[in-house]
Amino acid sequence: MTMERTMHTAIQLIFDPQHDTHRAQEVERVWRMKTGGGDGTQTQGALGLRHSDDKVLVLLNGPHTASQRWIQFEVMRAFIRGTPIVVVDVSCLRDERKLRAMRGRNPLDLLSAEAEAQTLWLKEFNPVTLKWQAARASSSVPRYAVPYPMDGNGPWLLSSIFPIYRWTEDWGERNLLAWIDEALSATQSAAQDAPPALVAAAASSPARFAVA
């Protein structure tokens, strides 16, 4: 994977629009500066910067992001599609009032996957009932339909599969493209390591959706 390809990759920024829009705009500014611009659209706190057919989901984690259930849904939907995922803590960035925030819980701590034979069972934590339940995006998918590095049978919290970066401590302005490149490379490598016959079988087997 080359940095040149990363510069031409589409990213979708997901964030809590009530608390983190100003912080997301700073990340967007850096992305545009590094890649030379691009069109952007903003809906429901989702900012899609489109540069090519490749896509990476970049989740911006603020003080209240983990409590947004629509964000759980979007992350799990990206997971079952095999989209590379990058989590960036932006609570250290200042908001429109020039205030920093307390670090929030990683939303990926509230999403899990567990393998049983060739099936991957997906769950999410419901903050209302305080119980784990079948993920709304999909309750299960064929194991090799998702190209992520997962050894054994789990269960895995998604936070154990995808690292979280701190915008300030990890030098986000300098390293954002590198984080995206690492996510692309990890997904590509896991896809190449999967048994071809099982990948073909997974491609022909639909996901199973939970009943709301």
From TrEMBL:
A Pfam family it matches: ThsB_TIR
Superkingdom of the source species: Bacteria
Domain Thoeris protein ThsB TIR-like stretches: 53-91
Full protein name: Thoeris protein ThsB TIR-like domain-containing protein
Lineage, broadest ranks: Bacteria, Pseudomonadati, Pseudomonadota, Betaproteobacteria, Burkholderiales
InterPro entries cross-referenced by the UniProt entry: ThsB__TIR-like_domain (IPR015032)
